Amino acid sequence: MAFDYSAASEFEERWRGYWALGRPRGVRDLARWVYQLADRRLLHSDELEYIDRPELGDRLRVEVIALVDWTSRALAIGRHAARWLRPLCREVHRRTRRPVRILDVGCGRGGITLDAARALERWGEVPVVVSGLDYNPRYLELAREEARRRGQPEVRFLEGNAFDLAHDAGAFDLLITNWMIHHLTPVQVFRMLQEFDRVAAHGMMLLDVSRSFLTAAGGLLVTALLSEPRRHDSMLTLRKGYRRAELELILAAAGIDYVEPIRLPLGLPPIGACLLAGVKPIS
After folding, report:
1. Is the pTM of this model over 0.85?
2. Burial label, 175 (beta-carbon count in 10 A; 0-12, 13-18, 19+)
3. 8 Å CB contact between 136 and 211
4. Could you read off the pLDDT of 182-229 as tens digits, one per residue?
5. Which member of 24, 59, 78, 140 lies 3.0 to 4.6 Å from 116 by CB, making a disulfide possible if both were Cys?
6. Is 262 inside any structural domain?
């Protein structure tokens, strides 16, 4: 599908207006305005993580992404992602009466993808076919090795571009992404969600970190003993995450009105996460 540059330009202008803040509208609005100013000036960062800098080579980036897999397994993020996918899978299977085709975009080394696939298989509510997609051939090589090691050869790992998916419209039932959106600029998220809406026949699920001073403060304590590259990327992850309202703004600009925020139980890992999901209405 050809990229709609006019829509992207219109969104970029809208995002600049949102980010500009303006002046507080009276005394009652002052506290919100001060908090948002502090968020933009002190917390938010546009600095690239090491994992997003190809010039550093795969060795360093693989070292950093290994921490992502370790953290994901420790917090059972794949299992939680599968738990939140269950109602979407049930609805899709009710409509189609066939295995639900799921594509995990930005899967990295595949840890979350494999954990989610295993959990959905064990629960056995509906049959699923899970695939992962990433742009980095080295990550995909490691993901396929891990799938063989775990005895999950049925999980496929595909090379591709999240902004220009090489799949026909409706090629998958559900498109999901876990812990990836914070790596992207707002315009890139906008473009990716347009592609998700095109390729997903029935719906999508978005899970990522949500930026806040509380999670950043906790990150300073948790990452204190990590090596410099891992500490660097872990803290930037917490500073680059999108707030729920920001993702809702991008979804609305992309014309996606069926994806809604899901409230996560207090204290449930991953703490500080933002989850949005939904299925398309039956036309």
Report:
1. yes
2. buried
3. no
4. 999 999 999 999 999 999 999 999 999 999 999 999 889 888 888 899
5. 78
6. yes
Strand ranges across the sheet with 100-105: 156-159, 128-134, 100-105, 172-178, 200-209, 273-279, 260-261
Contact 262, 188 (CB under 8 A): no
Rg of the chain on CA atoms, in Å: 19
Of 268, 245, 283, 251, residue with least CA distance to 84: 268
Looking at 4-160, list the stretches that DSSP marks H as alpha helix, in order from N- to C-terminal side.
Answer: 5-19, 30-38, 58-74, 77-96, 111-123, 137-150
Residue-number span of the structural domain to which 173 is assigned: 48-279
Distance of CA 91 to the CA centre of its chain: 22
Number of domains in the chain: 1
Token digits for 42? 């002190």
Residue 119 lies in a domain: yes
Mind listing the pLDDT tens digit for each residue in 108-130? Answer: 999 999 999 999 999 999 999 99
The bridge status of strand 273-279 relative to strand 200-209 is antiparallel
| Residue where the block lists tokens 């990452």 | 223
